[in-house]
Amino acid sequence: MQLHRNDWTPPERTEDEPRPPAQLRRILALFRPYVGRLAVVGLLVAASAVVSVVTPFLLRAVLDVAIPQGRTGLLTLLALGMIAAAVVNSVFGVAQTLISTTVGQRVMHDLRTAVYTHLQRMSLAFFTRTRTGEVQSRIANDIGGMQSTVTSTATSLVSNLTAVVASVAAMVALDWRLTVVSLLLLPLFVWISRRVGNERKKITAQRQKQLAAMSSAVQESLSVSGILLGRTMGRSDSLSREFTGQSDELADLEVRSSMAGRWRMSTIGVVMAAMPAVIYWAAGLAAAGGAPIVSVGTLVAFVSLQQQLFRPTVSLLSTGVQVQTSLALFQRIFEYLDLPVEIAEPEQPVRLGEVRGDVTFDGVEFHYQADQDRPTLTGIDLKIPAGGSLAVVGETGSGKSTLSYLVPRLYDATGGRVLLDGVDVRDLAFDTLAAAVGVVSQETYLFHASVADNLRFAKPDATDEDLVAAATAARIHDTIAELPDGYDTLVGERGYRFSGGEKQRLAIARTILRNPPVLILDEATSALDNRTELAVQQAIDALAAGRTTITIAHRLSTVRAADQIAVLDQGRIAELGTHDQLLALGGRYAALLHREAVPA
């Protein structure tokens, strides 16, 4: 059994798309709001670098002056200076770590928030073609994987670069010839590190895709529905084997990522560790050849500076590798941030005062983006006056639910207009539309929280009395009252503590609490038995009194009293009228009613 299905995937990069330099500029822009703090970090880093290069000069004075000349006072001052430099460096290091980590975490927070907020603005269509585990992986794994880069790379880059510049300057001041010898292999090291970085970047992209696949597999197969399906179908073992294979592939990618270029980077470390010996050897040959002799103090101070140079140089090379690796993660995050928002609030949204509830479909057409040659709705003209009721019926796949989703803008019409009180819903403010239109769908979703919390999701400031009144109207209060903790009882994952009918009634209670002037009932009683359906239908009838109601119905027995009944056939209105009119017409509605009365 394969858990994967056709999902949204990012398009392949073309030659015209931004390359790493543009991506780096975009990454640097993330730090722009914190440029003041980063400037402080830069000052601390510069000060730390200056203090660091002072120590070798103090050491030279100790070896060439204080000890040979027996000047104990000077020796004491030089020793105290070296200790003071170490203390100051430590204080600067702690301060810059605190500031840089704070900035890094704020950038991480901004990224997480930006991705989550952007996804909240995406249309329903995006989520119908994208696995939940994929979305979770982008927020958790990809952004989490960037943490070390974001929180420490900027500081490490500035710190090490400053240390390198200061060390090279000090080395030149001591002896320019030894400096040339020390830097001969540096271009080779830079080239090696870039090769390693590119290799790890490719492996990281594969690793993150595998993490996303595993996240999706866990989310789907270890949910309550997944466990029920796996066990009842006898596929638990095969699911375990599939997960084992995915985990094994991930483990292999982790090893490859860790070992990519490891030998080459280790070679750089060995060469740098051997450089002091090369310097001593070069100085010895120069002295043997009659060149001016370098003093012992100068030689020791130079080697000390060389070590100070090599540490930040290796760190810079490693940082370069880390940055290249992180580019794969940033690319995945930017792919989500760059997704076009298909349903956006207008720049100057209209806010209605008191919503009457007039709903009009004016020449409405709709097709899904992936299926533009096959329209889902065509030429829909309907008018539901305030307080009126419309029932929409038809065969499965005729476009009933899609039609209702256009009113709250879960989708946008691709042709024509949907009007609320004479205003195109695309011109309305999101908060106005959300307050005006309530939806109870056949897919009831409850959070893993208490009953009260699930109800208050519709109205956060609702009192306990409001909850009881809404639950009573939805015929669910008695069931809640019998629970061990009443309204404080946890509903369980996706509400599995409750039956399908009870979940539907909780959803209806939640909508009652919101009290919208327009109701969309998308087969809201489809999961109820006949007795419960009658009770809930009574609650819906009471709720719908004086409100505009659009009912998507599978059972025609629930819509006989509707002011209008629209029969959809392949996205078009085939018939429109009251129950009695359509029954007398003897057309599609009558056939549907007959089929329901006499099931095949």
Automatic annotation (TrEMBL):
A Pfam match: ABC_membrane
Official protein name in the record: ATP-binding cassette subfamily B protein
Entry annotated with the keyword Zinc: no
Chain segments annotated as transmembrane: 38-63, 75-99, 164-192, 265-283
Keywords: ATP-binding, Membrane, Nucleotide-binding, Transmembrane, Transmembrane helix
Region (Disordered), start-end ranges: 1-20
Biased composition (Basic and acidic residues): 1-19
Record's bilayer topology term: Multi-pass membrane protein
Subcellular locations according to the entry: Cell membrane
Ranges for domain ABC transporter: 359-595
Single Gene Ontology MF annotation: ATP binding
Origin species: Kitasatospora paracochleata
Signal peptide limits: none
Residue span, ABC transmembrane type-1 domain: 39-325
Major localisation: membrane
SMART domains according to UniProt: AAA
Keyword Transferase part of the UniProt annotation: no
Superkingdom of origin organism: Bacteria
